[in-house]
Specification:
Blueprint: E1 3-5, E2 8-10, E3 23-33, E4 41-48, E5 52-57, E6 66-71, E7 74-85, E8 91-101
Antiparallel strand pairs: 1-2, 3-4, 3-6, 4-5, 5-8, 6-7, 7-8
Length: 102
Amino acid sequence: MKRSHKGIDNQLSFCEQRAVRRRKSAAVVRLSNVSQGTEIVEGLLLDISARGMRIEAALPFSIGDAVRVDLPGSTVLGEVVHYSRAGTARVEVGLRFGLFVQ
């Protein structure tokens, strides 16, 4: 993403402009939309930070939904703060962490 400030091009990506750094990933995770009562499906963890994560999955989402994500060694409950289509059957979802369970 290109942004300009007083005629100077700044080519930092959106992730690099965040207060908390995100780490890219390509890990397979298991998740379910608790708010909508969906079954557990596999998704792709795209990136993760101290405050949240971005996942691609074939599930329905709405802003504010509670989502359970099973990671190796722990389970995370998060809230949907962003979602967009990532193809015909998949959605990219941004989650803000709520609770960690081991």
